[in-house]
Design brief:
alpha+beta
Length: 121
């Protein structure tokens, strides 16, 4: 099954970073699968139900600024290519920060953590 929102772990990381749950657009809710009697997690479109706040890919992208200004006053723009998430210099080809792991959701969460740690959001 394709991932459509952050996992519980990714969601908790965003909350720990201070990202408001009001920016989430989904909810993760545990339930018991009647066929297997196993505990499973369902992604529910729409936020506000009991459960863990979760972010769709679109909601994660909205959290990241289109551009950031570095200490040296150079400007960088957000680029998302395939599964990679980058901030690139607008005056050259330099990648200022980037994540290229196998999961675009994880790359976005890691980039948001970087942005928070450096005061860009």
């Amino acid at each position: 099954m394709a991932q459509i929102c952050t996992t519980k772990e990714q969601s908790h990381k965003l909350i720990e970073l201070g990202i408001s749950t009001y920016t989430a657009d989904m909810t993760l809710q545990e339930y018991i699968n009647p066929e297997t009697e196993d505990k499973e997690v369902a992604e529910i479109a729409g936020y506000g139900m009991d459960g863990v706040a979760a972010w769709s890919l679109g909601a994660l992208v909205k959290l990241m600024p289109d551009t950031i200004i570095l200490d040296d006053r150079s400007c960088c723009g957000l680029s998302i290519l395939n599964i990679g998430v980058y901030y690139r210099s607008l005056t050259g080809l330099d990648i200022i920060q980037g994540y290229e792991e196998d999961n675009i959701f994880e790359n976005c969460v890691r980039m948001i953590a970087w942005l928070v740690n450096y005061g860009y959001i």
